[in-house]
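Section 5.1 Outputs to date
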Amino acid sequence: MTHAASNADDALRERARAFAPELRRRADEIEAARRLPRDLSDRFARAGFYRMCVPEAYGGLECPPAETMEVIELLARADGASAWCVFIGATSGSVLALLPESAAREVFDRPETLISGVFAPRGRATAVEGGFRVEGQWQWGSGTWNADWILAGCQVIRDGEPERLANGTPRSRMMLVPASQVEFIDTWYVSGLAGTGSTDFAIHDVFVPEDHALGLGVEGPLARPLYAFPQFGLLGMGIAAVSLGLARAAITELTELAGAKTPAGSARPLAARPATQSGISKAEAGLRSARAFYYEAIQAAWQAAREKGRIEIAHRRDIRLATTHAVHASARAVDRMYALGGGTSVFRSSPLQRIFRDVHVATQHMMVAPATLELTGRLFLGLDTDTAML
């Protein structure tokens, strides 16, 4: 990393810290709105958060992945939903490296451009002259309410039949569609991470030019270290960064509460109780260990990408294992803090209840589901394994 890049990363982290007081103050507002307020999204864009994974050649920051995740983690300590929207917007910007230069510059036509969407191929892209006709409805569209461009995963249809890869599986591609041509459907009524606005969206027979369609797991025209990281890997890393930030926030909240609260029926403050002391220690050990493994795996892959221009399956395996472990270790730390908070934890006035709900929504994401441990386990055991989504 160059000195200039290091300075840019430091500036991004400082901007994330500067947002923290406002995000804490507005957390209830963000949750009630069930989407990130436009003014915050616009200011995140001006702060450069959505450019962290955009190629430098097109006006982005192209930050090392660990630095991007640290920014997301810092934001999550203040508000999980805001951090989630930044993670989606930031990592989605990396797809510009997969487009032809002319198309990438057309999409990223101003520094505040925001791309969000869904990789899952829930739509149909019917091949026509010059591109595709796209139709479908997608779930889990985090941050799409504020986006300029929408990514929509599609199964490719050619001559009336699904196009297939050499191994027989259907071919899927991501379609970049202007947000003005997308219908947003208000479906996001959930227990946690409500402020992410992860609503459904639909596309109705929209033409997408060939140069606005991209494949995942393929090499783009920009052979840069950051773009050696697979999209699914970046997705899992972002979920973990949010979860780690939430867990740190929970420990901070409980620590402050423990010094001020004397539980009913007790003569001692919460901090003086052995259960509290033990619980804090276990949470700290679990969280710090998971965080260390997470950043170690990312840095090892980053070093390989810089030295060799690629990351091996073993790096991808370790990233997936570390991200899944980080999310669930974070949830365990939050659970401990929530339980130690007693009755205080259940009130809307306590950030612990929102953190508890937010982190348990994060654990439900398919990228960090328990089945991912089976995937990484097969690789450790040397078994034949489909690594397409690793």
